[in-house]
Amino acid sequence: MGADMLEEKILNDYRETLKARDALKISILRLLRAEIMNTAIAKKKNKLDDTEITSVIRKQIKQHQDSIEQFTKGMRQELADKENKELEVLKTYLPPEFSQDEISKIIDEAAAATNAQGIKDMGRLIKEVNLKIAGHADPKIVSDMVRAKLSGSAPQA
């Protein structure tokens, strides 16, 4: 996707969804569009760029994952299933994810570039890695892999 195409794609999909009367998708995209607008207002911007929109989508995905976990624990499978369907819709707007090998290679290159030695350099290294990964991986996985590299242990998958 080109620069700043994500918001346009979401808007077009929203219009299509309205025509198709897909209630589940309508509510997800309506919520997503509202969250994008609220984030833009909070950042005092007219529009968010694709990286910022990806960040909003990831935040919503995390909320859905947390809800699925809670509903599953609470034996509310029908609610967990609904959240899961919503989660799948949101995931379609994320850029393709990098593999663990690709992430590991980026971390190694960034560690060499920043001369990161130990845990004290974690913030600096994560910042560098995120510039290269920019939305193509779950931030928690990246953080865990960086921590593992800096502490000299293998990440727990």
Which characteristics define this entry?
157 residues; mainly alpha; 7 helices; 73% helix
Mean pLDDT: 84
Query: Strand-residue fraction?
Result: under 5%
Helix % is over 70%
Give the biggest beta sheet.
none
Alpha carbon gap, first and last residue: 30 Å
Number of helices: 7
Please give the number of β-strands. Answer: 0
Radius of gyration: 18 Å
Shape: globular
Structural category is: mainly alpha
Structure description:
The protein is an all-alpha fold and 157 residues long. The chain contains seven helices and no strands. Helix 2 crosses helix 3, helix 2 (23-42) packs across helix 4 and helix 5 packs across helix 7. It starts with 5 loop residues before the first helix and ends in a 6-residue tail after the last helix. The relative contact order is 0.10.
Short description:
The protein is an all-alpha fold and 157 residues long. It has helices at 6-20, 23-42, 50-73, 77-91, 100-114, 122-133, 139-151.
What is the strand and helix layout of this fold?
Layout: H1 6-20, H2 23-42, H3 50-73, H4 77-91, H5 100-114, H6 122-133, H7 139-151
Helix pairs in contact: 1-2, 2-3, 2-4, 3-4, 5-6, 5-7, 6-7
